Amino acid sequence: KIDRSFISEITVDESDKALTEAIIVMAHKLGIKTIAEGVETRAQHDMLRLFGCDYAQGFWYSRPVPALAFETILGRTQTEEGSFFFHRA
């Protein structure tokens, strides 16, 4: 899990960008899937996708929702390419 403190500045801070990419590469070499927290912009989303991040969460995808609403969103997104990483609710 990649903390939002790294994600928030990956589009402007070269250190955060390099560290985030290195975490993803290292995790994949160890057979570990990655999830980024706190994705709030399209630019962050695009960069994580470029780096090969497996999953992400944050306001870019959805604001917090009640459990029943989440079930509806999840049911809708699972039909799209088998994953909801790149779906914006």
Provide an overview of this structure.
It contains four helices and two strands. With 89 residues, the chain is mainly alpha-helical. It has one domain. The protein is globular, with a radius of gyration of 13 Å. It starts with a helix and ends in a 12-residue tail after the last helix.
Arithmetic mean of pLDDT = 85
Distance between the termini: 21 Å
Rg value = 13 Å
Strand content: under 5%
User: Would you count the extended β strands for me?
Assistant: 2
Strand order of the largest sheet: 1-2
Helix content: 40-55%
Structural topology:
Blueprint lengths: L3 H4 L6 H16 L5 E2 L5 H10 L3 E2 L10 H11 L12
Parallel strand pairs: 1-2
Task: Quickly describe the structure.
The chain is mostly helical. It has one domain (4-77).
Name its key features.
single chain; 89 residues; 4% strand; globular
